[in-house]
Structure formats: C-alpha cells, structure tokens
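Listing S7. Sequence submitted for prediction.
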Amino acid sequence: MTMTWPFELLRPPDDFVEEEYVALLQELRSFLGAVATADPGRELTATLTADLSRWRDALAARRTTGDRAPYGQLHRTDDHGLAAVPALAVHREAAGTLDATVTFSPWYVGGGGTVHGGHVATALDGLMGRTQLAAGWIARTASLDVTYRAGTPLDEPVQAEVRTLRAEGRKHHLHGRLFKGETTFAEAEALFIRVARYPGRPGTAS
C-alpha cells in the first residue's frame, strides 16, 4: 500500500461510514481471537476457508490507493483503525503522555501461554508514537529498547502508560510500560524523530 508524502489525511470514498468500518475491524479482531481458541474440525475449517476466500476477493475488487484506504488512518478512534493491534481504550492522551488499557486476546499468544514479546513491543511502539500525533506531529521510531519483566497475560486488561523523558529538538525520548498493580510486564525506552506536522490536529507542544 503506497501513501503519498508529505502525509495527507484520509480521503475515503463517498459511501464510507466510519462507524461501520470500525465495527468491521472489531469483528475481525474478535474473529482472530476465536480462531486462536477453537478446534474447528475438518468441515468447519473448509467452510471458513471458502468464506474467507470470498471475502478476500470482494475486498480485492475495492482495492484503492493508500490515502483512500481507511485502514490505520482513523485517528479519532483509540486503535487508529488497526485490527493488528490489541483492543485498546485510551483514558488520557496529551502531547508526550498517555494512559490506556490494553487487552491482548489469545490471538497474540506466544511461548508459555502469555503474550508474544513481538506483540508487546508493537503495542508499546504504537502507544508511544500516538503521543506524537497528540502533539501535532508525525514521528518515526528511530530506536526501541524493550525490557520484559514478566509474562504479559492474555484476555486480561493491563494498564499502559507513556511519558516523555526528554526532548532535543525533533528528537523525543519516551518511556512506556505495561503493568497491573505493582507488576510491570514490560517497559521500553524509545527515540522518536518528528518528521512532519500532522495536518489533522494542531500541535499542542513544540
């Protein structure tokens, strides 16, 4: 999927309804969680495979350019329209800071029956990046260092927080962690480089 640069806001087709698209992504996320916990058997597996093939073909017929595809571009929603990330509820969001609740379904399972470390890193990276959007900037991840303290549980809400450690011009150093009570599951330090103003929201910080 190719997107224009400098970044442009979503230009959806005339028949696009954001609420309905968000519902589609929620069902997709729920479906993947159900796949991870089911023993479908041969007959149901064949049926689902055929259904998925038809749905894929229907979507392929509506393939479009990056700035007209809403996936990942719904910045008014908590998950930004990304079904690849776990269920997310943002409680507080401002320039360089964020508090949220994250729930990983069994789709994100890794070794030992806890969340795969790669999904933990992706979640932290995404949460830290969106604090830059809250400041009115598009930023790229320059480095991400994740430390895993304990296994992150599945199907259980965990808290997430992001804070700014320091800023040096376009370089912003952030700290994020996933935790519940006194237990920290993972924490990360990252360097984000601000590359362009985000046209969808005025900047609230330099």
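Caption to Listing S7: primary sequence and predicted structure tokens for the chain studied. The chain has two domains: 1-80, 87-197. The longest helix spans residues 18-37.
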